[in-house]
Amino acid sequence: MKNSLTKLFIRDLERLQNEIQLYSEESNLWKVDQDIKNTAGNLVLHTIGNLNHFIGAVLGNTGYERQRDKEFNDRDISRKEMLLKIDELKEIIDRTILNLSAEEIQETYPINIRKEGMTVEQFLIHLYGHLNYHLGQINYHRRLLDIC
User: Fold this and answer.
1) How confident is the model over 73-84, as a mean pLDDT?
2) Cβ proximity of 99 and 60 under 8 Å
3) Is residue 58 within 8 Å of residue 111, measured between CB atoms?
4) What is the mean pLDDT of residues 66-72?
5) What's the mean pLDDT when you consider all of the chain?
6) Any residues with CB less than 8 A from the CB of 143 and at least 6 apart, and which?
7) pTM of the predicted model, to two decimals?
């Protein structure tokens, strides 16, 4: 399961990098329009922050300190910087998940975000779904608002 999850996270973080690179103009990553309130750039920052926190800091003890408000308020972070942050995140995810023991992956995840607790394995699957939810939003944002 660890190998499968790691491969899936890495694959879809690479898809996220591809989406960022497909924008014809870097400034279009920061567009909003009508009911589209989140920019693709902010969704990217949120995804990076979310995974750095819940996988890197909580499970991997990286020391990452999440600033969730900045994920949705920062603007005009360069495409290059976002791509580099995702490269760093891929390494953190690879190292963290693969270093979990069989016992650790079946333990209760240390942070309870819902009323019922989840195992680490269940929470990693939850995080993978969250990544893909935002990846889909970014794909639609690009196709709707990537207009020069």
Assistant:
1) 95
2) yes
3) yes
4) 94
5) 95
6) none
7) 0.94
